[in-house]
Amino acid sequence: MRSILIPMLLIGLVGGCSSGGSLETATVTGKVSYQGKPLPYGSISFRPEAGSPAYAKLREDGTYSLSTFGNGDGAVIGKHQVLIIATETDAGIAPANDSGIEMPVTKSVIPRKYTSFSTSQLTAEVISGKNNEFSFNLVD
């Protein structure tokens, strides 16, 4: 009897873990501005407290539409930290390659604090059942 219970318990535990694998997402759109003007290039990422992060490229007018698991599916429901990256390469400016290194480091064209989840101080809470819209105005 004991030899039957242990495998059944293990199957139950494994089955229970997999049921939490599909996290609910909600549509997330918005606009990113820098010094009051739309940021026409770069990317934005939302990192939830639990689950997969969401990502989008910024369009020329500064707008974005996040994707987590599929194109435009939004972000996982809950609180998120946000980061934004915009570099000279994103802007179409070729970085100087004076060092002889094959891949030169690209320079951020926005304050560096926005390029890290730990320093950006940007947050958002994605709510189920609605189109969540978040706009961010970056300043020096």
Walkthrough of the structure:
With 140 residues, the protein is an alpha+beta fold. It is built from 2 helices and 10 strands, in the order αββββββββαββ. The strands form 3 sheets. Strands 2, 3, 6 and 10 form a 4-stranded mixed beta sheet that branches. It has a 4-stranded antiparallel beta sheet with strand order 5-4-8-9. The chain has a two-stranded antiparallel sheet with strand order 1-7. The N and C termini lie far apart (69 Å). Residues 1-20 have low confidence and may be disordered.
Please summarize the sheet with the most strands: 4 strands, mixed
Rg on CA atoms, Å: 20 Å
Structural class: alpha+beta
How much helix, percentage-wise, in residues?
10-25%
End-to-end gap = 69 Å
User: Strand tally, please?
Assistant: 10
Mean pLDDT: 84
Order of SSEs, N→C?
HEEEEEEEEHEE
Low-confidence spans: pLDDT under 50, at least 5 residues? Answer: 1-20
Which of globular, elongated, flat, extended, rod-shaped describes the shape?
elongated
- State the helix count: 2
Strand coverage percent: 25-35%
How do the strands and helices of this protein lay out in sequence?
Elements: H1 2-18, E1 25-26, E2 28-34, E3 37-38, E4 43-48, E5 54-57, E6 63-65, E7 75-76, E8 78-85, H2 117-120, E9 122-126, E10 132-138
Parallel strand pairs: 2-10
Antiparallel strand pairs: 1-7, 2-3, 2-6, 4-5, 4-8, 8-9
